[in-house]
Amino acid sequence: MSLKQDPNQKTVNQKVKKKKKSINRTKDWSFYAIIISLIILAIPTTYIGYHIISAKLATGSVLTGSRFEGDLDPAITKENIETMKSSIQGIEGVESVSINLETATLRVNIKVSESFAKDSYPTLADSAYERVTEVTPIDTYFTSNDLHKMYDLEVGVYNYLKPTEEQKESFEYYMKSKTSSSEETFSSFLSDTKSPEFIQELVEKQTAPSESEKEKESTDA
Fold this sequence. Notes:
Blueprint: H1 7-58, H2 78-88, E1 96-102, E2 105-111, H3 121-135, H4 138-141, E3 152-158, E4 173-178, E5 186-189, H5 196-207, H6 211-220
Parallel strand pairs: 2-3
Antiparallel strand pairs: 1-2, 3-4, 4-5
Helix pairs in contact: 2-3
């Protein structure tokens, strides 16, 4: 004898099944929503993390490129500097010469004796200036144009490399310079101010290592 299913019970079972399907669909969508949210959040986190790691890996690396890219053309070479140095060392009264190419400035530092006559400083600086420009002409290397920023030139003549407190009273520093943006030169005894701070600044400038020397020290380290 077969039992007939209660119509009311059948309706209840159908509602239960529909509810389970609805719950399952809700669970499925919640799961996918969480996955999608995690992916969206992971994109900027991964991007930031990549750049942080890249920055750490790049620490201590030599940066390529230059803020003078496209300028300083033609460039002053090591061969040019050696030729200048050799020529200036032949000038009477010169004890030693150092030439530094710092960023876009060529600095020529000339040491003379402590007894070198003060009125001979300008003449010596003029001679050194001429010998520099024989190797690297003013119009080509030390004059900017509409297309290129070029070099500045400084020729300094001094009698003490690192003057003591007593020597600072007789310290002499004569400068002849030209900027690439000007056709005129500037000449003066910068040490005539006798300002201790300014004299110290001059001393630091003439004893500062060049960029090539800095690179060599960094490589040796």
